Amino acid sequence: MPYVNIKITNEGVTSEQKKQLIEGATNLLRDVLGKNPQTTVVVIDEVETDNWGIGGEQVTDRRKRGQ
Amino acid sequence: MPYVNIKITNEGVTSEQKKQLIEGATNLLRDVLGKNPQTTVVVIDEVETDNWGIGGEQVTDRRKRGQ
Amino acid sequence: MPYVNIKITNEGVTSEQKKQLIEGATNLLRDVLGKNPQTTVVVIDEVETDNWGIGGEQVTDRRKRGQ
Amino acid sequence: MPYVNIKITNEGVTSEQKKQLIEGATNLLRDVLGKNPQTTVVVIDEVETDNWGIGGEQVTDRRKRGQ
Amino acid sequence: MPYVNIKITNEGVTSEQKKQLIEGATNLLRDVLGKNPQTTVVVIDEVETDNWGIGGEQVTDRRKRGQ
Amino acid sequence: MPYVNIKITNEGVTSEQKKQLIEGATNLLRDVLGKNPQTTVVVIDEVETDNWGIGGEQVTDRRKRGQ
């Protein structure tokens, strides 16, 4: 029954990688808390780098500086 | 003043259906808790089937099996 | 498979009212989009009135003025 | 370490405006609570006007009436 | 920089289990997407069983039936 | 109409500080995007330090080391 939301920047994540995130998060809840995988929900949000800020600046600008 | 967030998979939901979700959620809060519809906010997020997991797998894969 | 999050102020909502919100939201998704109630998740967050703002002020202060 | 999520309607917000939202929210947490800007995260979600409801109706319809 | 939110029912999760969820989610993002663990944020929300619904009913009621 | 969610650790934030966060976030949306303060909603979530992770560890542990 757990609900897991993963927010990442939209920078070319593949469908295969999303599959691994979904499997991994579901297994984590099963292994640590014994949660039933059948009712665990995982939602991945891909956020544009212009819309994500850290340290007071857009990730777009950090990427330009190679960070 | 309530805030309702509805997350669904992005599979051809029409504008008319969204209208019904917004009306329905707003009326629900009014009927059950007496909340003023004028300040009830409803936000609908449509999530790609690759980005939604249940039972440890992507909805995309479930749809391929007819689920 | 939908996920519905309802945020309301923490002002004496009863367990029976929460039950009605859960039923109502689940039925809404079934009626409008044909979603399977068995996998619809509803999470209710009750937020202290000091922690909820609208119109630039705390709900606590609005309540004191009878709003 | 704070996490700030700003949800707005998708109506032509520029990259420069997003930059100002990120800076402003980060500075707000620093000024009020002394939070370290380096680990403050801000995520902006732009939501289609069909997917945002207030007063029981879609923002799309409100905009048509000039609201 | 990823942000992970884990919502679970409030049913006696220990501090040690939370530690494992935080480590596990952080490692998952590093392993699958190469994300820097130093800026990965994980927030765990524990939700009362009265406030969590699945299948149109409160988890509290499901627990009473042994589910 | 914007919705702002501020998540911070639960470490003695006063009602007055919450008031300043609500005012500040509401003014930010007005100043940058011309949003009407009357319909701007701000919700503050205070999260236990055991439930917040960064760098793969609980904030509780970081605080013990003076971070």
UniProtKB/TrEMBL annotation, chains A, B, C, D, E, F:
<dbReference type="InterPro" id="IPR014347">
    <property type="entry name" value="Tautomerase/MIF_sf"/>
</dbReference>
<dbReference type="GO" id="GO:0016853">
    <property type="term" value="F:isomerase activity"/>
</dbReference>
<dbReference type="Pfam" id="PF01361">
    <property type="entry name" value="Tautomerase"/>
</dbReference>
<feature type="active site" description="Proton acceptor; via imino nitrogen">
    <location>
        <position position="2"/>
    </location>
</feature>
<dbReference type="InterPro" id="IPR004370">
    <property type="entry name" value="4-OT-like_dom"/>
</dbReference>
<protein>
    <recommendedName>
        <fullName>Tautomerase</fullName>
        <ecNumber>5.3.2.-</ecNumber>
    </recommendedName>
</protein>
<keyword id="KW-0413">Isomerase</keyword>
<feature type="domain" description="4-oxalocrotonate tautomerase-like">
    <location>
        <begin position="2"/>
        <end position="62"/>
    </location>
</feature>
<comment type="similarity">
    <text>Belongs to the 4-oxalocrotonate tautomerase family.</text>
</comment>
<dbReference type="InterPro" id="IPR018191">
    <property type="entry name" value="4-OT"/>
</dbReference>
